[in-house]
Design brief:
- The complex is a heterodimer of chains A (111) and B (117).
- In chain A, 0% of the residues lie in helices and 47% in strands.
- In chain A, the strands form two sheets. In chain A, strands 1-9-8-3-4 form a five-stranded mixed sheet, with no helix packed on it. In chain A, strands 2-7-6-5 form a four-stranded antiparallel sheet, with no helix packed on it.
- In chain A, 35% of the residues are buried.
- In chain B, the strands form two sheets. In chain B, strands 2, 4, 5, 6, 9, 10 and 11 form a seven-stranded mixed sheet that branches. In chain B, strands 1-3-8-7 form a four-stranded antiparallel sheet, with no helix packed on it.
- Chain B has 117 residues and is an all-beta fold.
- Chain B contains no helices and eleven strands.
- The chains are: A mainly beta (111), B mainly beta (117).
Chain lengths: 111, 117
Amino acid sequence: DAKTTQPPSMDCAEGRAANLPCNHSTISGNEYVYWYRQIHSQGPQYIIHGLKNNETNEMASLIITEDRKSSTLILPHATLRDTAVYYCIVQAAGNTGKLIFGQGTTLQVKP
Amino acid sequence: DAGVTQSPTHLIKTRGQQVTLRCSPKSGHDTVSWYQQALGQGPQFIFQYYEEEERQRGNFPDRFSGHQYPNYSSELNVNALLLGDSALYLCASSLTSSGSGYYNEQFFGPGTRLTVL
């Protein structure tokens, strides 16, 4: 079973920041938080990952709480092309095995 | 770089038949994982191949089998198809790390849509 909990759906206005929450209260010390997204009819796409520090790349920012029990993915300026299902996944470092996907959050970006 | 490619894109089969799906990993990757995604659900891990052997397996019956070739490409075989096998089948490739602490980003292909009638 997935070790994360996400809201099933969210809306965001185009051009505004999209903040997607994720709860992972049972996360272990060696487990990273990964975010993937799946645009309709495509395979999932890696977005970002982090251990305990906040991370930023060209796609998004990841904010992890100090106790590491929750995190937020931030899309700073959402566009219509960011409409997708976003998955938050917890996985141990160096684990080359399976990704356990939950239901994810369907983000709808509206004009 | 072509990324991960899968064939065919769509497939229609009838119950009881057998099917083979194919995957070519991203250049430089040596590990292939297969996932099944039912409509409205997140992908479910089927198994993973590395060095031509099944390394990990999810909760899927023996009707699901696979193979990895020396060039790292992979096949997923499903025997005795059931209506419930209708799904999007995703292939993901990655590079197995030799040490700890290295995350392995997985690159997914576009999937094969299998319909069982």
